Automatic annotation (TrEMBL):
Keywords: DNA replication, DNA-directed RNA polymerase, Metal-binding, Nucleotidyltransferase, Primosome, Transcription, Transferase, Zinc. Residues 1-10 have a biased composition (Polar residues). Residues 1-25 are annotated as: Disordered. PANTHER family: DNA PRIMASE SMALL SUBUNIT (PTHR10536). One of its GO terms (biological process) is DNA replication, synthesis of primer. This is DNA primase. Its EC number is 2.7.7.-. It comes from Wickerhamomyces mucosus. Transmembrane segments: none annotated.
Length: 427
């Protein structure tokens, strides 16, 4: 079967090469190739099961399939790794999504009252999407991304990751490229998984400083909360290169007036409008400096200039602070596509990445690229004893994921041992 899949994959690649508009199209045979030869089912199973041997964390968990026809199938569940892998290969979905763990097996939902189907455990997840930055990014919009606007994601993941570690004490987090224009964070600590929706809501409200993704001015008290101050200290060093220089969103005078001329001092707002009217098309960097210079030149010495400084600080937060999809984090029943799925629109692999290390989504593995790598390897009569994964650029991502899962399982064993010891002390 493997040779047939290689042949089919080669035909699909050759066909796409002749039609650039289809270069990212993913066929059913492409997906069959990937599921049978590359997807690391064992590590995905262990990651969700928290043990090498099947337990409720996996067996009672919901999975969903999305198909090329547009059909969506929920409430799948599996008894073990082998059943999980066989089902995905047989069903051949465009992607599969991971849901919550239930008290009742999801596959038995029709035989029990709906009130019994309540989620009891699920990873704490976060979703950041670049389309939520379309009001400030100028290099791309909608589904398109580039290395410039990916910096919004880089900064966002750094801030959220640090807050989860330092403020909440979580240790087991993994960030995953969504395959097109965003990133997902999965927090797998035991105490994160058992959070109810009220506590999840409290965490997301703590982190969701913007509340409405920048649709109006920020309203935060001074002095800043320690989390906001720490975030600001990170963002202020990125503001000039990312916003003022690369994105340059306020060179357009109308955009500058709408965004920048909102100070509490109306005299300053009018002076800036007049100055930019007399000096049109100044860069965002120049306009940012203009605010201070025009304020010093036109406002009386009795003016509270501290308010102007604080307004500029708030604007830095408004433009660069993470813009979170809060419902993804709040709801335990929300499903999210698994790491190592293929994005059906791009063919990109949803690979994990370290938020503390550089990651370039433009050069991350793509399914057609992986197929070419295997075909090229085999055409050179290289050693066939090595696994297909090790013939591709996907290998280091899977190895990093394996190491992460190993650490998670070790922590789970230690935590279980501690809980057992505590129970032994009870009389």
């Amino acid at each position: 079967m493997s040779s047939q899949l290689v042949s089919s994959a080669k035909n699909d690649i050759d066909s796409d090469a002749g039609n650039s508009s289809n270069s990212s199209r993913v066929s059913a045979s492409d997906m069959a190739f990937y599921y049978e030869r590359l997807l690391p089912f064992r590590y995905v199973f262990q990651w969700l099961n928290h043990s090498p041997k099947p337990q409720a964390d996996f067996v009672m968990r919901e999975f969903a399939y999305e198909f090329q026809s547009g059909a969506y199938q929920r409430y799948n569940s599996y008894n073990n790794l082998e059943e999980f892998k066989a089902s995905v290969i047989k069903s051949n979905p465009t992607r599969f999504e991971v849901g919550a763990v239930y008290e009742i097996n999801p596959s038995e939902r029709k035989s029990v009252p709906k009130s019994k189907m309540k989620p009891v455990e699920k990873e704490l997840v976060f979703d950041i999407d670049l389309t939520d930055y379309d009001d400030i990014r100028t290099c791309c919009s909608k589904t398109k991304i580039c290395t410039k606007c990916w910096k919004f994601i880089t900064v966002a993941t750094k801030i959220i990751d640090q807050a989860l570690r330092d403020d909440f004490g979580f240790e087991h987090m993994i960030w995953v490229f969504s395959g097109r224009r965003g990133a997902h964070c999965w927090v797998s600590d035991k105490r994160a998984r058992v959070l109810d929706e009220t506590r999840r809501r409290a965490i997301i409200e703590y982190l969701d400083v913007l509340k409405n993704k920048g649709s109006k001015r920020l309203n935060v008290r001074r002095p800043y909360h320690p989390h906001i101050q720490r975030s600001y200290d990170i963002l202020k060093t990125e503001f000039i290169p990312i916003i003022l220089e690369e994105q340059n969103p306020w060179q357009n005078d109308k955009a500058a007036i709408e965004t920048l001329c909102k100070f509490s001092n109306e005299k300053l707002n009018e002076a800036l409008k007049e100055f930019w009217g007399d000096h049109p098309d100044r860069s965002s960097f120049q306009k940012w400096k203009d605010i201070d210079e025009v304020a010093k030149r036109t406002l009386p010495k009795s003016t509270n200039f501290k308010l102007i400084v604080e307004a500029k600080q708030d604007l830095i937060l408004e433009t660069l602070y993470p813009r979170l999809d809060v419902e993804v984090s709040r709801q335990m029943i929300h499903l999210l596509k698994s790491p190592f799925c293929i994005h059906p629109g791009t063919g990109n692999v949803c690979v994990p990445f370290d938020s503390r290390q550089p990651f370039d989504p433009m050069s991350s593995p793509n399914l057609h690229q992986l197929q070419r790598e295997i075909i090229e390897y085999q055409s050179n009569d290289e050693d066939e004893k090595i696994s297909d994964i090790d013939k591709t650029s996907l290998s280091p991502y899977i190895e990093d994921f394996r190491k992460y899962v190993t650490r998670l399982l070790k922590s789970e064993r230690n935590g279980k041992r501690e809980r057992d010891d505590e129970n032994d002390l009870e009389f």
